[in-house]
Design a protein that fits this description.
Layout: E1 2-3, E2 31-36, E3 41-46, E4 65-68, H1 75-87, H2 92-99, H3 105-113, H4 118-124, H5 134-140, H6 143-147, E5 155-159, E6 164-165, E7 168-169, H7 170-184, E8 188-192, H8 196-209, E9 215-218, H9 224-234, E10 241-244, E11 256-262, H10 279-290, E12 293-298, H11 303-310, E13 315-317, E14 326-329, H12 338-342, H13 347-357, E15 361-366, E16 374-377, E17 393-394, E18 403-404, E19 424-428, H14 431-441, E20 446-450, E21 464-469, E22 482-485, H15 488-492, H16 499-511, E23 519-522, H17 528-535, H18 538-552, E24 559-565, H19 567-580, E25 586-592, E26 600-606, H20 611-632, E27 644-647
Parallel strand pairs: 5-12, 5-13, 8-10, 8-11, 9-10, 11-12, 14-23, 15-21, 15-22, 20-21, 22-23
Antiparallel strand pairs: 1-3, 2-3, 2-4, 6-7, 16-19, 17-18, 24-26, 24-27, 25-26
Length: about 650
């Protein structure tokens, strides 16, 4: 069995004797409680297997109690959790906390009581799925049925159509067709989506093609009891479609045939909890382990997807007939209308917004959130900074005093330290100020603001201007009559290794919401990512970026990791790696940690081929340090080990 403990020294298989009173009742996958000899504690854990004879030759401690008779940990998920933990230098128990929801005793009781009722009926008389391949075949030709085959070699990077159909984005309809085809063949499907918008929209075509009883929804918004109910239903021995967000990658599935991820580069797929494994990497491991098909679908493929395509692990599947939006780069000349100038809209974009809003909704994507997120001296153009923390100043509303965007300090009587000026000007304009200006520029047209704080999924088919930040765009039932992408230069100037790739992906996803034939107006100076967007050749730019990163040894061409802890702990971990001497290891640092100056941080870069060796070495060091800390603390207060390892972090460069 495996113990539910974050301590790395306890991350191994333990053997316990099943007492006579419990023999015949304990089975693999159950939650149990067992004694731990050190400290006399009782810990929770999961049964991995049972056997007649022990492997350990000494005396075994006896299992304490069965906490739950439900076999919540299936063998495939147990193996996946072990492999993920080993890849990330983490613990299996950390992975299982992500994979298995909290228990509901009342729900388990109801579930067991229904063993011969509705639950048995679902298993014995599974509803049939009628699959119509017409639309899918028209889009992908002979490759359509291969996408639904659920075979081990069926691994694809899928390019999808743009626009709207059935009131939802076309890609989600295609993915619903693929899921229905796989389920009709008797195989389960995992459909992974970034956030609540995609999840709610994808459920609409899915429910039209698949009976509700065969759809399991793993939604992070669910409360504990309905979340556990969906988990228990997924354990039933029938093929189902399991749709959900990041954690759904660990969902149990009978006869799993296909794993589909939509927009795998979305930041929502990054796991913020230990051991920090990206959902895409977990899905790839599960596909390999269970022999399933794998589809990564997107408008703009991720760097990781293109790496796998070029390595031959994924094949590229494209539309038989290209289906792309009409993208028009805007000439920099401004309209004579002062309201258009105030809204920073070039003449071509102004004309498209005016014509589009006369027919229906128009989407305006703004690069920055807030009202005036950046300020500078109106006289000498020096950036306005906080006198307390040196953070940039911004303005939250038209009548608000300038304030620090970092610490919140208000600067009502700000004075420029360079020239003594007291007037401020905007260096950037947020979506709220843009909405205010466009409202004045388009009188009589409804203005709708969509951002991360307002969960707006869709809008009505009406004349409206929708002002949105990137990633928060609602859908229009028949597509937008025009889309304006503003402030593109600011998105490209962001200080991040992935800034340009993320910007291209965000623009592509937004442009794909336009109605067929309607224009997408892009403002900003010409640049390679904007040219890739205009030509709808995102993969060419991504390939160029990947080649650049291969030259510079940046991820995902290689893997990286961070080692954080005291000076002695970091030195010990690096010494262990140097003694191992893996090929291609490159160490940067250590340097003082940015978050805690008392700690050190080192960055390591290494090829994929040596990842397992490096993870094993770092895990050994974690075990050594944690165990030593426990020994020192026996009988007296002692600080715990501060050594932390994070492999494949996204925020290093």
């Amino acid at each position: 069995m495996v113990l539910d403990s974050p301590l790395p020294q306890l991350d191994r298989i333990f053997e316990y004797e099943i007492p006579p009173v419990l023999r015949g009742e304990v089975a693999a996958g159950m939650r149990v409680k067992v004694p731990l000899r050190t400290g006399g504690r009782i810990l929770r854990g999961y049964v991995l297997d049972t056997a007649e004879t022990p492997e350990y030759s000494g005396r075994l401690a006896a299992l304490d109690t069965i906490e739950s008779p439900v076999p919540v940990l299936t063998r495939p998920i147990a193996k996946l959790a072990r492999d993920v933990a080993d890849r990330q230098a983490g613990t299996m128990s950390d992975v299982l906390r992500l994979a298995i929801p909290a228990r509901s005793v009342k729900l388990e009781t109801e579930w067991f009581a229904d063993e011969t009722g509705e639950r048995a009926a679902r298993v014995q008389h599974r509803e049939r799925v009628a699959f119509d391949a017409t639309t899918l075949t028209a889009a992908y030709g002979d490759a359509a049925m291969e996408l639904c085959a659920g075979e081990p070699g069926n691994r694809a990077s899928l390019r999808v159509a743009t626009g709207m159909t059935e009131g939802v984005p076309r890609p989600l309809v295609s993915l619903a067709d693929i899921a229905a085809g796989t389920l009709a063949a008797g195989r389960s499907v995992l459909l992974l989506l970034p956030d609540f918008r995609d999840l709610d929209l994808a459920l609409r075509p899915l429910r039209e093609r698949i009976p509700e009883s065969l759809i399991r929804v793993f939604d992070g918004r669910l409360k504990p009891k309905p979340r556990y109910e969906e988990f228990l239903r997924a354990l039933e021995p029938i093929p189902q479609v399991i749709i959900g967000n990041r954690a759904a990658v660990y969902a149990p599935a009978t006869n799993l045939g296909l794993i589909v991820m939509w927009d795998d580069a979305d930041e929502s797929f990054r796991e913020p909890h230990a051991p920090y494994a990206h959902a895409r990497e977990v899905a790839l491991m599960r596909s390999q382990q269970e022999g399933t098909g794998m589809i990564l679908a997107s408008h703009s493929p991720s760097l990781e997807t293109r790496r796998l395509v070029r390595a031959g692990w994924l094949r590229e599947v494209t539309l038989q007939r290209p289906h792309r939006p009409r993208i028009i780069p805007a000439i920099a000349t401004m309209n004579d209308d002062p309201l258009a100038q105030a809204a920073r809209i070039p003449e071509a974009a102004w004309r498209a917004a005016r014509e589009g809003s006369a027919q229906g909704p128009v989407l305006v994507q703004v690069g920055r959130s807030g009202y005036r997120p950046g300020l500078a001296c109106a006289q000498c153009r020096t950036a306005a900074r906080c006198s307390h923390c040196a953070g940039p100043l911004g303005q939250r509303s038209a009548h608000a005093a300038p304030g620090c965007t970092v610490c919140g300090q208000v600067h009502a009587a700000w004075r420029c330290p360079e020239c003594g000026g007291e007037r401020l000007r905007s260096t950037s304009v947020g979506h709220e100020r843009t909405a205010e200006e466009l409202g004045r520029a388009f009188p009589g047209v409804k203005v709708i603001v969509a951002d991360g704080e307002k969960r707006l999924l869709e809008i009505a088919e009406e004349r409206a201007l929708v002002i949105s930040t990137r990633g928060a765009e609602p859908v229009a039932p028949n597509g937008y009559r025009a889309i304006l992408l503003l402030d593109t230069e600011g998105a490209l100037a962001r200080e991040s290794l992935d800034a340009v790739v993320d910007a291209l992906r965000g623009w592509s996803n937004t442009a794909a919401l336009v109605a067929d034939g309607a224009p997408v107006i892009v403002t900003g100076a010409a640049s390679p990512p904007l040219q890739a967007l205009r030509d709808w050749q995102q993969e060419r730019f991504i390939d160029f970026e990947l080649d650049e990163r291969r030259t510079l040894d940046f991820p995902p061409a290689i893997r990286i990791g961070t080692i954080r802890g005291s000076e002695d702990e970091v030195d010990g971990a690096l010494r262990r790696l140097r003694d191992l001497d893996p090929a291609g290891l490159h160490v940067l640092g250590p340097v003082p940690d940015e978050e805690d100056g008392n700690l050190q941080r080192a960055v390591i870069r290494f090829p994929y081929q040596t990842g397992q060796l490096i993870a094993e070495a770092l895990k050994s060091e974690l075990v050594t340090r944690s165990a030593a800390s426990k020994r020192r603390s026996a009988g007296r207060a002692s600080p715990a080990s501060t050594l932390r390892v994070k492999l494949d972090p996204h925020d290093v460069f």
